[in-house]
Amino acid sequence: MIDIIFTMINRRFTDIYHVPNSRVLWQSQRRCASTNNVMNVFDRETKQRQKNRAAALPDWNVYEYVKEEIGWRVADRIFDVKRKFDVGVELGSGRGYVSRHVIQESMGYLMQCEMADKLLDQSVGPEDNVPLDRLVADEEFLPFKDNSLDIVVSSLSLHWVNDLPGTFKQVNNALKSDGAFIAALFGGDTLYELRCSLQMAELERDGGVSPHISPFTEARDLGGLLARTGYTLVTLDVDELRVNYPSMFELMHDLQGMGESNAAWNRPLSLKRDTLLAAASIYSEMYGNEDGTVPATFQIFYLIGWKADKSQQKPAERGSQTVSLHDLHKLDKLIDTATKTEKNIDDLEKLGLFTDKPT
Predict the structure, then answer these.
(1) How far apart are CA 140 and CA 152, in angstroms?
(2) Helix 248-258 vs helix 44-55: angle between axes, to the nearest 10 degrees?
(3) How crowded is residue 239: how many other Cβ atoms within 10 Å of its Cβ?
(4) Is 284 or 338 the better-scoring residue by pLDDT?
(5) pLDDT in the model for residue 344
(6) Average pLDDT over every residue of 141-167
(7) Which of 288, 186, 295 lies closest to 239 in space, CA to CA?
(8) Residue 160 burial (10 A CB sphere; 0-12, 13-18, 19+)
(9) Which UniProt keywords apply (predicted)?
(10) Average pLDDT, stretch 348-354?
(11) CA 66 to CA 251: how far, in whole Å?
């Protein structure tokens, strides 16, 4: 059956490996892939099970609020690019948080890629009749050919990837020249209130600290990673989303419903009841609002990188500047002097003192 599927794929769509109007299971060679010099922080199979369990919840739509909001903000960044992308991929699409907002003016064709098949079954496509396919694929092992995609977008998925530089490089290889990579990731300050409360409670009750919240990427690392993996014109901005909950327990319940439970290999498998109660008390005391609710901060990193192309703007050559950085405080005066000089030259030219306007 798999051979038949891939025969269909190669016969009709040799560029990006897909079958129209269907979902194809991509059998990645992750068990055979070399893991030398690659960080192995997260249990990817556990994360896949967590996502599929979240998809099986009868009230799964209740827990969509953070991912829906960030998905819209990522889509808005696509609209900022005044270009129509012929072939796009939403990597780690979940239920299609970015895809549902895509319009025909921005995208000619879109593929949703997600490692959790049950979550992908619930995905929503664009309302604007953009052609769409779905593919079960691991973000760490992309099945796309080199130079086959115009844009890759990802929203709140890549923070679970072990080999983030490897994924960035694979995306860059799959992009065509001047192709765009737009993504959103949880930042290092995400859920700092919950992290601090659990750590203080464990120190008090158990005499030690366990990693109950997965590690997140720092902003200072992302720009360097993108540059080292071949991207140009890199931009990075940071945003925060703060959500209020009745207590710490509702927050933890919603994180599980989002499929965002801890998936690190060294995560503790249980937490004592009295430690949880102590953490909830600390959370409320240290961070609680006046109305009795507690806030949870979600820090979001938005990044945009482009695959190198000759048509892109290049930085000026070293030493080509005409104004010293030491004179930046005189910028207004320099501009005023330049303006007056230009006006004087125009006046002299009108008097016929120049045959050609000097530069």
Answers:
(1) 14
(2) 100
(3) 13
(4) 284
(5) 62
(6) 92
(7) 186
(8) buried
(9) Methyltransferase, Transferase
(10) 53
(11) 12
pLDDT at residue number 40: 80
Residues 6+ apart with CB under 8 A from 121: 23, 55
Identify whether the C-beta of residue 42 lies closer than 8 Å to the C-beta of residue 214.
yes
**Which neighbouring-strand residues pair with 300?**
186, 239
Structure tokens at 180: 């765009």
Distance CA 114, CA 42 (A): 17
- Phi, psi (5° rounding) for residue 135? -140, 130
- Give per-residue burial for 316-325: e unless 16+ CB within 10 Å, then b: eeeeeeeeee
Q: What is the pLDDT of residue 175?
A: 95
pLDDT band of residue 188 (cuts 50, 70, 90) is: confident
Residues 326/236, Cβ–Cβ less than 8 Å: no
CB 164 within 8 A of CB 172: no
Q: What is the pTM of this model?
A: 0.78
For residue 100, what pLDDT band results from cuts at 50, 70 and 90? very high
Amino acid residing at 104: Q
